Amino acid sequence: MGLTVAQKLIKSHLLSGEMTVGSEIGLRIDQTLTQDATGTMAYLEFEAMGVPRVKTELSVAYIDHNTLQTGFENADDHRFIQTATKKRGVRFSRPGNGICHQVHLERFGKPGKTLIGSDSHTPTGGGIGMLAMGAGGLDVAVAMGGGAYYITMPKIVNVHLTGKLSPYVAAKDIILEVLRIMTVKGGVGKIIEYTGEGIKTLSVPERATITNMGAELGATTSVFPADEITKAFLEAQGRGEDFTELKADADAVYDETIEINLSELEPMAAMPHMPDRVKKVTEIGQIHVDQVCIGSCTNSSLMDMMKVAQILKGKKVCPTVSLSIAPGSKQVLTMLAQNGALADMIAAGARILESACGPCIGMGQSPNSAGISLRTFNRNFEGRSGTKDAGIFLVSPETAAASALTGVLTDPRTLGEPLHILMPERFLVNDNMIEMPATAEEADSVEVLYGPNIKPFPTTEKLPESIEAKAVLKVGDDITTDHIMPAGAKILPYRSNIPYLSKFCFAVCDETFAERCKKEGKGIIIGGANYGQGSSREHAALVPLYLGVKAVITKSFARIHCANLVNAGILPLNFKNEADYDKITQGDELALPEIKTAIVNDAPAYLKNLTTGETYELKYELSQRQKDIILAGGLLNYTRDAQN
What we know:
Layout: H1 5-12, E1 14-16, E2 24-27, E3 31-35, H2 36-49, E4 58-62, H3 72-88, E5 91-93, H4 100-107, E6 114-117, E7 131-134, H5 137-144, E8 149-152, E9 155-162, H6 171-182, E10 190-195, H7 204-213, E11 221-223, H8 228-236, E12 256-261, E13 268-270, E14 278-280, H9 281-284, E15 291-294, H10 302-312, E16 322-325, H11 330-339, H12 341-348, E17 351-352, E18 372-375, E19 391-394, H13 397-406, E20 434-435, E21 467-474, H14 481-484, H15 498-501, H16 513-520, E22 523-526, H17 539-546, E23 549-554, H18 559-568, E24 571-575, E25 589-592, H19 595-600, E26 605-609, E27 615-619, H20 624-632, H21 635-643
Parallel strand pairs: 3-4, 3-6, 4-5, 6-7, 9-10, 9-12, 10-11, 15-16, 15-18, 16-17, 18-19, 21-22, 22-23, 23-24
Antiparallel strand pairs: 1-2, 2-8, 5-20, 13-14, 21-25, 24-27, 25-26, 26-27
């Protein structure tokens, strides 16, 4: 039986385990990336591990999230990352060089390689045939130190594409259609692999849009084959030598297959407040629009920007619309400036932002109260924009630009003549904002500089025999890491200061949570299905750890967040009978009797409700390695113990 692209990538990097669906496997990691919202903690963790130099083929630190500097905090974090990476052998992409996923695709990604990044949209690299996965910062630190990255062997889903996109229908519409079909829970435990003649009609930037937003499916990652289109992209980037052909065997077998005819797709939009609430633009109708934001790691490539510029050229943005545009990298911005497209955008009335994540993570450009904002981004979770009552719609660049001109949600197919945008034969290559690390000989003279806002990693404890604590919070289904640990301009500067950051934990759900949790000294969180979906931010585990959370008990977990809880030493448990979730009330006194013995012996675990006298059976999906991490009190303790 032949292998799929994903299976070939896994097989060539397999360090431990068997390629049996549902079993834990350890993978060799070739490349890592970090960004500054999660990177400060990742490098604090790497420093704590005591490994002198990174052991990967390539590691890059990007500054692209915390670029608004209204105080010293972000600048201090950037200085810390710059000095730590210089000392430890990591390349440093300076602020202004671009968004990590866009730049990595342009300058560093290689077909056939593995990549993990401390950002959930790292699967962007699957657009050029990488096994690219989002991970918690501690997992990235371990990989930089030469350790394996562990996942559960996923199922492989074949999304078979036929036909060709009609004019003004975009790659964004493809992934929105996949989200409509599969939902935000549908990709859990799966890799999404794209096949069929339809993929030959998609450029690398279009493929990367699809793999980027595949993160919203809850999937382990998404991947395209590496073919002649991939080769042409790498040659245009001056990296033709990095190409390796990678395709599925003719007799490869997939666990599931989804058929999509590209010729039948129409412009789509994800409605508030979830990426899978997808409808056709024509179904939603011409609703009034207050704001349009174009950019993010999903849709900020040169091709996307050129389409937007062509739509805007010679026209004027509607006076009631605020239009902002953020090119994804310095390469994109410079080429737009040189070919005149940037001038067309500015002349139309667009506000040009720096090449960074910006509004996507609530770092500026928050909409007006109760405003409607169309965004070419990947997430529209409630409050993520910085305006809690705003209605955020996710759309393609074509739909966004057309709507910016009319002031209402507009089907771009009404614009008339099709757009004609070709990939350049040669991209402008200037890597002068990527700093090389010191050599091993020079590293001793490099001082790592810490700022006063940078606080130590929270202390962890080994798993006790039993846990007794109050249900300090009960939440419903689809709780995101934005709910647990919000982003935004007011909060992100404190990502390296867990004590201060703790004030905002679960504030979207319950503004009294942090204060109550501190008062209790310890607690248990009760959650619904798909708990922890969204961003890979390990702060959604580290902050509850700091606040004394000992266990999180849910109907089900999102993959990365569950791993982050284990890494933090917080016990992730599931109800064996989901109906038991309804029997617990916030404030109930709970107990996990002899939980350590149960974990050690792989025995059933039980939750006792001391308030009602009821007992509920629990289950846990932990590998032996994860059990050892929990028993040790977290991955940092486990790693230190292994070194001694």
